[in-house]
Amino acid sequence: xxxxQPPADGRPGAGRGEQPPPVGELIKQATEQVSALxxxxxxxxxxxxxxxxAGRGAVLLGAAGLGALYGAAALLAAVIAALALFxxxxxxxxxxxxxxxxxxAVLGLTGRRQVTHAMPPLPEQAIDSTRQDVTxxxxxxxx
Length: 143
Hints:
Structural class: mainly alpha
């Protein structure tokens, strides 16, 4: 019968062929984990940004565009008909088009200001989560 010898260096499991992974493998695992963590934090930040103020500005822009379209169509016909009583119809249509484009420009600039005012919002949850991750990684590195 063979007897089991205790490990020479006193580490449990050292005599059973269990060795810690090489440093290169540990670095590779850490790099993969950090990469995955960064990707997750970026996804969280993007999701947080999309759900904030930019949505309000986009809705306002869409509503302004739709309202301008229907209102412009109704008013355009009336204005052109009224102006056509005093000038050729093409001139009346041109004047109405210039006025409508000016109104659309004002609405567009107002909506753009709303969208740019919302940017760049800070993804607070992502920042907090990243800070916690960095703190935890520093603590693990100290151990």
